[in-house]
Design goal:
single chain, alpha/beta, D-Maltodextrin-Binding Protein, domain 2
């Protein structure tokens, strides 16, 4: 009997040891935008060295690359616009939303300092990144709710990325653009338009889309725009997900509290960015890590508006309960 008990104990210990055996590699992925920057800090500090022999950051440059990474299991944890996460889930992709960390990142930038609201841009040519994805979607929903026709009342010039739109501004091929941070701050820096004490800046911050959203829909001036998701086989690894959530929250806090160091660190991995621009952008972004479960009410309000007006953007319907990862508490 004693021998059987000893064997059982040994088996349990063996199972537990194997359960926490380090993986060969974990891939973290995201865009150039702020949501990814804590991932870079996690890699540089070895935050997940206790669960993986190698941790790698992989950049996705546009929503098509994001979709390819998730479908082909090219990443384990990936930064996603919230609508894209829902869309992929509703199309059968193995993905669960872990958190929302970006609640405000989009704004208008212009050469005309008299333009203050979205409605002021009627009739203007606007550089717009990512047709039918987050920037375009939010612009369209706010414009519609304010009684405007986004396709007729504005001359939208679609770009493949925020940085293409930024270059159009810098080269004076357009006078207005909708950009995500840190592209706004980088554009201001490259044109000598900040700090504010500059007598005649070339570009100005204008309408804040989060503020416009709040005023238009009578809610808080924040939008659950982007967060982290877990993909593929990693969904089953509760221990590593727990460790990821812990370290992402720590790195996001570090990022917010150390803007100069964060700017320098970020450009070491994403050299197309500008350290000073990244540093300046941090105070203009609403960053707050909220678990998917706790963000569900805000997400479903946002998804509900999209389902009513443009259901294709979320895969035709609100995602069900299984989309929202449940933390083990």
């Amino acid at each position: 009997m004693l021998k059987k008990v000893s064997l059982a104990v040994a088996l349990v210990l063996s199972i537990n040891a194997n359960a926490f055996e380090k993986l060969e590699k974990i891939v973290l992925s995201g865009p150039v935008a702020s949501v990814s920057h804590p991932l870079i800090h996690m890699v540089s500090t070895g935050a997940l060295d206790d669960v993986a022999k190698k941790v790698e950051f992989k950049l996705w440059k546009n929503p098509d690359e994001l979709r390819a990474l998730t479908i082909k299991n090219g990443a384990d944890f990936i930064a996603v616009p919230s609508n894209v996460g829902a869309n992929l889930y509703n199309k059968g992709v193995d993905i669960q939303l872990l958190n929302i960390s970006v609640w405000g990142i989009l704004g208008m930038i212009t050469r005309d300092k008299t333009l203050k609201t979205l409605a002021d841009f009627k009739g203007k040519k606007i550089a717009m990144p990512f047709r039918a994805d987050m920037p375009d979607i939010l612009f369209e929903e706010i414009a519609k709710a304010q009684g405007m026709n986004p396709k007729k009342d504005f001359d939208l010039q679609y770009m493949s990325s925020p940085f293409d739109a930024m270059q159009m501004l810098i080269m004076r091929r357009v006078d207005h653009a909708l950009l995500a941070e840190p592209a706004i701050s980088i554009a201001l820096k490259k044109t000598g338009s900040f700090p504010l004490k500059i007598i005649a800046p070339d570009l100005y911050r204008s309408a804040d889309l989060q503020k416009e959203w709040g005023e238009t829909f009578k809610v808080e001036a924040k939008i659950p725009q982007a967060g982290m998701a877990v993909v593929g086989d990693m969904i089953q690894n509760k221990h590593i997900i727990k460790r990821f959530n812990e370290e992402y929250a720590k790195s996001l806090k570090w990022y917010k509290n150390n803007p100069k160091k964060a700017g320098k660190l970020t450009v070491e991995t994403i050299p197309m960015l500008d350290a000073g621009g990244v540093t300046n952008s941090i105070k203009h972004v609403q960053l707050n890590t909220v678990s998917a479960q706790d963000a569900k009410k805000d997400l479903e309000f946002f998804y509900g508006i999209l389902e009513k007006n443009n259901p294709k953007t979320i895969g035709g319907k609100l995602p069900n309960e299984s989309f929202y990862y449940k933390n083990n508490k």
